[in-house]
Amino acid sequence: MMAASPDDSLRPRVGLIYDERMCRHTTPDGEAHPECPERIRAIWKKLESEGIPRRCVLLNARKVEDKYLASVHTQNHIELIKNISSKEFDSRRQKIASELDSIYLNVGSSEAAYLAAGSVIEASEKVAKGDLNSVIAIVRPPGHHAESNEAMGFCLFNNVAIAANYLLNEKPELGIKKILIVDWDVHHGNGTQKMFYKDPRVLFFSVHRFDFGDFYPSGDDGAYCMIGEGPGAGYNINVPWEHGQCSDADYIAVWDHVLIPIAKEYNPDIILVSAGFDAAIDDPLGGCCVTPHGYSLLLQKLMQFAQGKIVMVLEGGYNLKSIANSVLACAKVLLQEESVGSIQTATFKSTWRVIEAVRHELKGYWPVLDVELPQNLLITNSRPCPAEVTYSSSESDVENDEGTARTINFSDFVEDDVLLPLSKLKIDEGNHGKVIASDQVQEEESLSASEASHDAELVTSNEIVDGYITWRSLLSKVEVWYASFGSNMWMPRFLCYIEGGKVEGMSAPCCGSLDKSSPKDVIWKIVPHRLLFGRSHTRTWGAGGVAFLDPERSTSDKAYLCMYRITLEQFNDVLLQENSLHQENGIIKQMASPLLDLHILEYVAKNKSLPLKTLKDGWYSTVLYLGKEDDLPILTMTCSASDVERFKSGELPASVPAKDYMNTLVNGLVEGKQLTREEAVAYVNGAATWKL
What we know:
By secondary structure, this protein is of the alpha/beta class. It is 30% helix and 17% strand. The relative contact order is 0.09.
């Protein structure tokens, strides 16, 4: 341990841990990933540029002992992480990682995980003893998602939980009997919650994006009703945001009206902060707007407790500038240096709604909460939820972000009379049984069935129900080209949408199409459109972006398309699955009417693209017309033009793809004989780092 300068004798003794060895944990083949070594390097570089290390006490990182890991993790999990970087695992390391939720592993993972956990123990013990007032532990991999028996969400060992158990159970002489864990990472600390769910010695507080259970790690664990069990009832506090864009004002309101009142009653002996900075402005995964000054205020409000004994442990945070500036602001607060900034926005109305729900749930355990909030506070200090945002509760296998909201531009949608369902089509007995539009469609706007279906066979009588054509019978005779630019370029992946099932790397199977016939033909085409990667998390592929095609043409760009000749019925089933409308409460749903019928197809062909009103919450809600091949229309599905603008502005996250998702793109391009593997990787990486 290196001492601080004598000139700083009156300055609080703040410890700092950083070790370059934790940067050896990286993706095995050097692929881009949000949880990368540059995260902690950027922090350290920023702190050095401001002279922070010279004003702190530098601590040496140390590796954790297995016996301390065993206080929260199973022996099987400990043995796996301990040995995963050894040569013994070279041939199966990646397969093991692929079977875990959002995890990569390499030859440096074991050492980094042991150093991260051990360093947090070292920091916590120094503060508990009184050797230091506080410590900032710049460690990785992060820990709060790691559960007792498995790694998940970028986390290998649960660093904070291990340290808390160490203080409570291994060092009783230090007098630490009550620990407050504050988790302000934008994702719920599911692993930490489960480890102390029945333990009143730990008050676990998590404020996080929840989006009604759709935001990672998803499910109900992060709900405000999860308050602990048995002797731990009332000691687990979740504050679940309903949406993104929460800012300093929202977090401060939660501190003032939930956390601070409870902390005063609880009176902790030490505070461990799971300090994720992915709720920060411009973070690619979080979608919130907390400033460095905002984080410094949150930390400053905690310093009144436990005699200022605070250990701030790095968790998430994936924008290098934001994470570095935020840690710097927190370091200055711990050093009791001036923090400059102001709160610029009011609190969301939804935040007050959540605060009131949390207070109501916990008031039986914390009487200080059994007081109604002043109505003038709720009225004068609030702003509506973003008017342009709606929130999807879908479970898209490819397109489901961690709940990030998307803009709905209603002017993009066509009038209802254009979105004529196929049920409005009737048999015209005077036209030899061919299909024509009903009189609700103006003649000049409609196609004849023979034109629209490319001389499809006549519909037989057993395909007519009460005078109407079953839409599947009709559209099964209409062929189109489905042009894929994403993971479906790899045929085995695309066939999951037709036949059902999944390929390696997918966490959930597809339900498939009712018509499981294979494509009649497969060809490739290059189009003048920009490929880009947006969003930040999918339930199938984990953390990372997914592919979109900019609806606007650009002669300076090119995108590879793998085109499958399928029926319009099958295209509807693919469209349904891509936009997560195929399940409700785990049950496969069937469409009473198609999403894209012949009249909508005609409109798309005339206007080149159409955002479908029925898919307004889907990520791939825009059907794009790309011309014809062999006199058949070429169709694809992508995001709206307004979403592209939101990617440009940073309102929606733009992220590199997950490893397994990227592999499907590369496999498609290579097996389709379009590019070599090296060229395919470069193509995807170029699109993933697009600059608009």
